[in-house]
Each structure stands twice: as structure tokens, then as C-alpha cells.
Amino acid sequence: MSNKFFLYARKSMENEERQALSIESQLVEVREHAAKEKVTIVREFTEAMTAKSPGRPVFDEMLSCIAKGEADGIIAWHPDRLARNSLDGGRIIHFLDIGHLKALKFCTLWFENTPQGKFMLNMAFGQSKYYVDNLSENVKRGQRQKLRRGEWPFGPPLGYLGGGRYSFPKVDPVKGPLITKLFEAYASGRTTLKQLRELCTSWGLVSRSGKKVALAKVHATLLNPFYYGLVRYKDDCAQGVHEPLVSKELFDRVQETLKRRGKPNKVKKHHFSLVGLAKCATCGGAITAERKKGHAYYHCTKKLGPCSEKKYLREEPFAQQIKEALQTVALPDDSFAEALTTLGQMGLEASQPVNEFKKELDRELPQLKVKQDRLLHAHLEGLIDKGEYRSAKKELVDREMELRTKLAHLEGGVTGWLEPAQNFIRAAHHAGLLAGGENLEAQKEFLKKIGSNFRVGGRRLSFQFKNPWAFLGG
Hints:
Elements: E1 5-11, H1 23-36, E2 41-48, H2 57-67, E3 73-76, H3 79-82, H4 86-98, E4 103-106, H5 115-148, E5 160-161, E6 170-171, H6 175-187, H7 193-203, H8 215-223, E7 230-233, E8 236-239, H9 248-261, E9 279-280, E10 287-292, E11 295-300, E12 313-314, H10 315-329, H11 333-350, H12 352-380, H13 386-435, H14 440-450, E13 451-457, E14 460-465
Parallel strand pairs: 1-2, 1-3, 3-4, 9-13
Antiparallel strand pairs: 5-6, 7-8, 10-11, 11-12, 13-14
Helix pairs in contact: 4-5, 6-7, 6-9, 10-13, 10-14, 11-13, 12-13
């Protein structure tokens, strides 16, 4: 029987565990439990750090001391104080297996160093990890939902105030007009990024910390579609509910200027946006381009041998054909809004079984907790033996895991079809936004997602549409 214990108490500095007992409260409870169990505490370890990932220095120090034989037991408030990740939980189990640890005691959980006891402890660690993983997914889902509504769930960009968790960003009355001025200055084509950074300083446009705006920040600001009203995060985008600081036309002009001047070390004399999209319809050779009298012309390279295709396709009609192709799959604003509303209603209807089951879960989980408490009390009072306690406790834990697994499957059944459908119509709406702009690179890349076998012949672009779900490609 172990007679030297380390006391371990931990709280996270993150919001996810703000309801957990503070370290002070844990120390009081655990000391009282140690006295009741006649446990000798030889040292106390405390730290304020999340346990969802390995790398807690105090925890690692404690295990190092245990490996040296300074103690052979740990007492804590609950197993989730020790670990919320698989690696640290596995280290505790391994120390029990090799004899470095002989006992663990918790205020809220009974543990015996037996195969059954380690199995139950492993389940407790697993539940703790599931809680953290599920919480992370819930946060991400909440962020995605905000993005779908056109809200920005993070810190406000330069030129805006507020936003993030509480409300959508509002224009900064001082810095907002300076951001507009920033775009206008660069769109003129007479200012470099370095000169623009110096202008920011002269205007008084500084970072949130009051420092000079970094060159990379100036560049990122000019690339951010948030300023013309589009909320974009990773591969998702939506029309924002915030007030834009620049027009779409001004933003596009800035992007064209960035493309022309953003790569000063570029070897090629000219950049042709539509090269790489199609092949020659006659011989299958690559399509190249050259500039004549201020216009870009696309034609066959004829590197595969003689080719009868003699016609050149000028970039303007080439780009117009691409826009027309995008328009054939584009979803207008009113249809986009109606489709999102319809899908939202369908999602609500489909989620009814989930909501009903959550109500059942809210009723049964507290009952299971009460039963576990009563079971533990009966065991401590000697009313049931260890075998009966372990068997009954396992049934209760298995029932709780069964309920949570069923909930996860039900939620997956709802979002499994809803999110792809919503992404599909967003992509169709995005096709319309692209077709209305002048970003040839973006138009070309989107067309490549929905089409294949691109050919140019007789000054016409031809291709085949892919499966409509190709919208969702990377």
C-alpha cells in the first residue's frame, strides 16, 4: 500500500474550463480527502495550464520525481486534472503498469490499481479528452455558423472596432477613412508598398499596439476582401453584415496593381493570366500568348508539329467567354438568399430528432450522475462489495458513453448533408461574384474546378462541365 503521495492541482487559464474548481478550492477539498483516507502528502504540485496537450512543466516534473521514487501515489480532485490528452493519460497508466505508481486517489472517483481499475481510469481519461475535442468542434462549428451569417467571429481588422465574440465590427471613425485612403493611393499605381507604409505613418495609421504598421500588414490589408464587404475564412466566404470601407471596383483595381508590381524579380516580361487553361483544339498542343499593340493574344505553340490553327484569340473576348461560362452556373443574389433560407429551414426540421434526444440526454445524464454518487456512497459505507460496485459502475459509465455516442451520430446525420449543400450554393453564388469582377486568375481557377478538357479553336473556348458537386473541390 502506498504511503507517500503527491498532491496535484491544476486549473486552465482558458475559458473552456472556467467552471472548474480553482486551485485554492481543489487544495482544500483534496487535503480534506487525504485526511479522511489517511494519506500522507509529501509534496504539493500546482499549475495554471491547460491539459488538452502534452507539455505541462509542473506535471512533467511531478512524474520525474515519481520515477525517482520520491512518492508512489498521486491524489487529485478528478482524473481530468491529471490529463485531458492521450499521451499524458497513457503515461499515468504506464507508471501504474511498471510500478512507479502504486495508487491514485481522487475526490470524485474511486480507483483501485487492478486491471479493472485501470480500465475505468482509462475511460475517465478518454471522457476528458472527448470533452476537449468536442468542445473544440463546437467552437469551430459556432465560428462557421457566424461566417454563414456574414459575421466575423475573430478580432476586427485594422480600421474597425469591436467584433469578435460580441458583435460585428464597426468602422473606426479615425482609422476607417485612412484605410479607404490607403486603397485609393495604391490603386493609383504611383505608390509602392514601402512608400505606402511611410504614408500610413504620416497619416497616423498605426497598429493596435500603437506601433508602425509592418510592411507585411500593409500588403495583407490590401489583399483582404473584408474591406469591400466579403467575409472569407479558409475556403468559405459569405456576404458580410459589416459596413465596407472600399468598393468592389476599387478593391479589384488594387489587386490588378498588386499583380503587376508584386513580383519585382519576375523573369518573364509579360504575365498572361489565361495561359495554362486550355490546349489547342486542332493539335492538342499548349496555348501560349504574346503581347502586340497593347493587347494579349493567345495561340497554339505548334510544338507538337505543324498545326492548321491560324487564328489568334485576343484576351478580352477570351475573358468574356470565361465570364459567360461562369454565368451559366452562377446563382443570383436573390436565389442565393432564398436557397440558404430554405436549407436553413430544412436543417431545423432535420435537427428535430437531435433536439428531442438532447432533451432526453438532459434528463438522463443527471440521473446517471446521482446513481454513480449513490453507488460510491454505498460502497464506502460497506453496503456493497467491490465486485458489485465495479460491475454497477461500469454499466452506468457504458450507458453514458452510449448516450453521447448516439448524440454524435445524430448530429453527424444532420450536418452530413446540410453543410455540403450549403457549400454548393455558396460556390454557385461565388461564381456570379467572380463573373462580375475582373480577376482573370480567379475566374480561370474556378472554371477549372467545374470543367475539363478545355480547348481553344477558331477563337472559341470549349470545355465539358464536371459533376456539379465539383464546386466543392479544393
